[in-house]
Fold each of these.
Amino acid sequence: MKSELSNEPMRVGVKASRAYEVLIGRGLIDQAGQRIRAVSNAKKAVIVSDDVVFPLYGALLESSLGKSGIESAAYVFYHGEDGKSLQNYASLLEFMSDMRLNRDDLLLSLGGGVAGDLGGFAASTFLRGIGFVQVPTSLLADVDSSVGGKTAVNLPSGKNRAGSFYQPMLVLCDTAALETLPEREYANGCAEIVKYGMIGDEALFDKIASRPVKENYAKVIRACVEMKKRFVEQDERDRGVRALLNFGHTVGHAVEKLSEYRVPHGRAVAIGMACVTRAAVRKGLCEESTAERLEALLTSYGLPCETACDSASLAEACLSDKKAVNGGVNLIMPERIGACRALYVPSNEMIDWISAGRKNG
Ligand code: GLY
């Protein structure tokens, strides 16, 4: 990859508790040093990445930082969800201490959602907060987890149970990095993109139905980030409208948990979206055609629409979701493609909703 500052990336500005830009384009890892210099005086940076992503892009990022006078060291962890364990979080903090980072220095997350969540939480807590830059390399991280400031690690009792809202100073979505994305990871990212179409953008839904996401990465990522920006600017702390981004996630998280995290996030969300939409049809909240179009699109991206988990276990796992309120859950329900709303489902009705959402229910 060669430097192409002349080939300007797309830009989306986010005005949350911190204002920052999301840049989307090819070659941004190679340009990271100059781009970061424009927003930070850091002298040092820790790069947080896993053992799959770092060998692909770590040297390019380190060299770019070095050219802009930013000394860096990499904290590389074994890939997978265990990267978000309390032990890994603690050893990252010790690594940062050993580097003698100060508050003007930076943490860069290079990779997917695990690197972003772990790195963001470490950046928000080390010295009560140091500079943070997201350099997502997966489609899912580009369109969702790198934007909006949610950071977290896992507790033995559940996923993302310790976390913070901590906005990055800059997000660099290098679309060239998506060229090395395995097919399964591509499909996972597409599930979140389908979600954006369902909750707020029928044109995006139609666009990705008629032309594969991979033929149009930058514009599709921009459409998703622009929508996410609107939710985050209205409701940064996730007390209201931001909950719509949770469409498919309550059932999805239940599927992930029951599979002991063997079903990846995007596939689980696909199952969750299909299940809730079938339930909405059966309860008279939306047309049959909404469920048919959703399932056709998910299937075209190789995503599942059903799980082998039994309905009682699914309902129970939904009710233990960290977002459960007063014993029930706010399920995000589609009204049509491009419009969803929250509906409170009390605990005693959950099994009925899940059963209504089964393919053969
Ligand atoms: N991933 C959902 C949110 O950021 O609110």
Amino acid sequence: MARTHISGFPRIGAQRELKFAQESFWRGETGESELRELARQLRARHWRLQQDAGLDFITVGDFAYYDQMLTLSALLGALPERFGFDAGRLSLAQYYELARGNAAQPAMEMTKWFDTNYHYLVPELSAHTSFDGGVEWLFDELDEALALNVPVKPVLIGPITYLWLSKSHVPGFDRLSLLPKLVNRYSRILEKLKQRGIEWVQLDEPALCADLPAAWLEAFSAVYDVLGTSEVKVLLATCFDTAAEHAQRVARLPIAGVHLDLVRAPQQLDVWRAALPSHAVLSAGVIDGRNIWRADLRAIVESLRELHAEWGDRLWIAPSCSLLHVPISLAAENKLAADLKSWLAFATEKLDEVSTLALALRDSAAAEPALAAADLALDARRHSSAVVNALVQKRVAAVSDAMAQRHSPFADRNRLQREALDLPLLPTTTIGSFPQTASIRQARAAYKRGELRALDYLQRMRAEIEFAVRRQEALGLDVLVHGEAERNDMVEYFGEQLWGYAFTENGWVQSYGSRCVKPPIIYGDVYRPEPITVDTTRYAQSLTPRVMKGMLTGPVTMLQWSFVRDDQPRSATALQLALAIRDEVVDLEKAGIRIIQIDEPAFREGLPLRKSDWAAYLDWATRVFRISAAGVGDRTQIHTHMCYSEFNDILPSIAAMDADVITIETSRSAMELLDGFGEFAYPNEIGPGVYDIHSPRVPGADAMLRLLERACEVIPAERLWVNPDCGLKTRGWPETEAALTNMVRAAKALRAKLATRQPELAH
Ligand code: GLN
Ligand code: ZN
């Protein structure tokens, strides 16, 4: 009989209880004991859901007060030395200081968890890291779970993934040298689990699905040779991609079972089936842990039948990965269209899907009603007129290579644009948004509650736009923006005005710490019924003789920050998005807008885990961007914007996007990024961010001037723009004005310097 389990459940709470409890603790309104009590209730509730669904195990160890990597660092006793904390006696207040920084120390670095939108805290290791033990929270949680008298399966991030994702500030330090100490610590943890009567422990090693170097693979074998012989059975869990090439290696290890992501990488099943020894457990991750669609249960059952006949109770059934990446429950959704809602499964519903699969393998008659209900929903989805739009299909079929190409090459466009725009050397601009003030947020909330009529809301937003335009004029910026007052979120704003998009009321997913996002759902062919930003942008342009930059979100970012269809490739959805944005770009041009920015902050994060899959992604991603941009004439200048990721390894693709100007985050790395752009000889214009917008600190004009001078060393001044790192919506007006005053001053100072050196440049 197949056994059922999950890799992890979202910890934030259906009403985001953990978020609110954390924030109240941070404000000092509640104490540690209240926060701990709330956490205990959440865990109990989530275990109860797993029990109610009839899963064979409840999963422990997926809870974290902020982040699971940080919690693991605290358990291992591997905290950054610079904080001076005793890991064994870490208080919750100190735990949060690690995550958020304190007066003396900046926070630990945060970065994305594989190709998800979840951010973890990067362990900081050094030769002194001893792993000699830390907080015992895991064991307390385990005791809570054991009190329920059901089989409990703890889950921990495995040592190789932990080390792989960690960092050392000592140049040249080999993290693998820490492995013996680390394995020791894991062994002791497993021993303690055994003492509590635990039979199985799950060790998550998604790093196996990344491109691990040979030395790391050897280390992997060495580690599990040791951990596999501990008295607890180890379920080695992979996810997010295939691990097929490691099947032989894993099969030689004393490991009791393997979990595979068969949603992302179903093709790996046969390899593993053949490789694994006859006592091993195979946990089939067949329910999509990364997306919100109801599964085709009947098809999955059929695909598992033979395997089940062969493997019996050595076959386990699970979601593909932790359910951390999907919202908690459909029960909280009252406004979704009934048909769409019936096509979805959030975390709670996925628990039932997992147990239905096991039931169907054991007793098909008993599972029939649940299977039939899934069939019905799936069938409705397949034939729904809300999904397929003939108009879109026709346009997609007619897309030609010419549509992905501007009329003339950059050099020719550049000449025409210089004539048309008549901008000074080193033009100054911003990335799009200005402060989202309390008055803007209040107006939007009142409008959403129906207390403000649409026209009154429009009036309020226009007043905000005029305010932003006047301030930019006073600051002396060269290319203005309308300030994005009317946008709550750069994806939601556009999605709300496109067919094929739906929005949940409570579909929150943890992004990091207390921060949650509510990704929209793309369920059908994407189509733009009418212009979205044209009136607003035209209005903004009418206020000023200066150039007003139109502001759009690009197709890749729209895709990346939404839950997307699973009934067509991502690239197909991206193409539909590109066509919708292309229409908007063309309409903006017709309305007299001469510069249009298509933001792609999520361009880099769409990269697949495996380098071997990069080229295919970059190929369609650059193409859909070009299709969104290339509907305009040569004189219209297309900008794009990217931020907060490593760009140096994808520079040729960024160049292939062929935006006339790219504005990009650079100031936090003191312009290191620019070296990449210099070496690669990036051909078009660039605005390297000259100050970090994530802090209220106002940088001096001198500091910005120095950054600009460095930039001039690698990029000719004629191709440089001057702008902040990113949008200013999270900032207040006083610091924004102060910083931009300095930025304009820095640009002017450099223009003056250059004019004395190269008089022909100054005009
Ligand atoms: N135009 C957007 C803004 O200024 C860009 C945001 C982003 O890069 N994430 O807010
Ligand atoms: Zn940005």
